[in-house]
């Protein structure tokens, strides 16, 4: 049985037809006229998970790396693309950004962001699809940041083109997302090699686009679902480059989490945690 009946297609190089197990089927398409709403169906869960200060991963890995890559921000006009409920926005303002616009397809998450920054004249928000043309992509921004969203949008080349369109010439794009080689929901796992006393990272699938359903409360049953779009690394890089954004910096970020188990596996588990990056961070500049 096909474990992921919604699986996507290999998009690069482009092919007219896609061979899939069970014979050729047309690629999965949204019903015509359905408005993109991002993570709206899981907004309450995500808002609670992230809270005011960010999830555990935000606080220890993603936000510190983002602020390092985004600096200096003094005097800058910044677009937070797929901003969610705005976890990055206070840090941008603290670092001297003069104006921040948050764009996200989820009306509920934008409402949470609005409620948080209602009294701050420097912040504006907009419900919009990052993959569709929009007035916000108006070549006026010094910086575009996008955290944990590259794998959540259905059309990455379009999102990158819009990020580039939002930037002034020479402006910078910073994106941090789950590492496409080592962290693919349901397809990557930790394993233990007893003979070599090492923890390894097992990658079951990598080279083909996948649309992976993510259930928000898997243990409880009846959880809401959203989609994770896995794309091989080359496809991500080509989407960025194809939009006229030249990568100037790349960081592979490891998890801050370490095994608490102790005992004979402790050394191997610690080594693996340092060895396999869970997130990829890219900084790119808009070419003239
Ligand atoms: C994992 S959340 C990250 C949110 C925020 N950047 C953060 O770090 O907390 C992914 C976000 O992407 C948004 N999103 C997904 N598809 C989108 C699209 N096509 N256009 C705009 N936002 C989208 C979701 O609504 C959600 O807020």
From TrEMBL:
InterPro entries: Methyltransf_25 (IPR041698), SAM-dependent_MTases_sf (IPR029063)
EC number(s) on file: 2.1.1.-
Ranges annotated as biased composition (Basic residues): 7-32
Domain Methyltransferase: 78-171
Presence of the UniProt keyword S-adenosyl-L-methionine in the record: yes
Signal peptide, first to last residue: none
Keyword Electron transport assigned: no
Superkingdom of source: Bacteria
MF GO annotations: methyltransferase activity
Annotated region (Disordered), positions in chain: 1-36
Sorted UniProt keywords: Methyltransferase, S-adenosyl-L-methionine, Transferase
Name of the protein described by the UniProt record: Class I SAM-dependent methyltransferase
Species this chain originates from: Haloferula chungangensis
């Amino acid at each position: 049985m096909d474990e992921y009946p919604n699986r996507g297609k290999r998009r690069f190089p482009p092919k007219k037809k896609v061979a899939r197990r069970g014979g050729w089927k047309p690629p999965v398409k949204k019903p015509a006229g359905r408005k993109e709403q991002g993570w709206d169906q899981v907004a309450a869960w995500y808002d609670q998970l992230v809270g005011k200060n960010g999830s555990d991963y935000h606080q220890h890995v993603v936000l510190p790396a983002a602020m390092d890559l985004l600096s200096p921000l003094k005097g800058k006009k910044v677009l937070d693309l797929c901003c969610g409920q705005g976890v990055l926005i206070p840090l941008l303002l603290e670092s001297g950004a003069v104006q921040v616009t948050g764009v996200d397809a989820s009306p509920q998450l934008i409402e949470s962001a609005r409620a948080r920054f209602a009294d701050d004249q420097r912040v504006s928000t907009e419900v919009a699809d990052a993959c569709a043309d929009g007035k916000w992509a108006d070549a006026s921004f010094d910086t575009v940041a996008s955290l944990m969203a590259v794998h959540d949008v259905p059309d990455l080349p379009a999102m990158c083109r819009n990020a580039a369109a939002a930037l002034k010439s020479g402006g910078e794009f910073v994106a941090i997302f789950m590492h496409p080689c080592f962290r693919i929901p349901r397809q990557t796992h930790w394993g233990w090699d007893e003979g070599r006393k090492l923890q390894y990272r097992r990658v079951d699938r990598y080279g083909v686009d996948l649309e992976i359903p993510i259930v928000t409360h898997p243990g409880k049953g009846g959880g809401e679902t959203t989609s994770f779009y896995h794309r091989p690394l080359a496809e991500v890089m080509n989407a960025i480059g194809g939009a006229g954004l030249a990568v100037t910096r790349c960081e592979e970020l490891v998890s801050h989490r370490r095994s608490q188990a102790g005992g004979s596996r402790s050394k191997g588990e610690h080594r693996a945690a340092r060895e396999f990056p869970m997130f990829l961070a890219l900084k790119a500049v808009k070419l003239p």
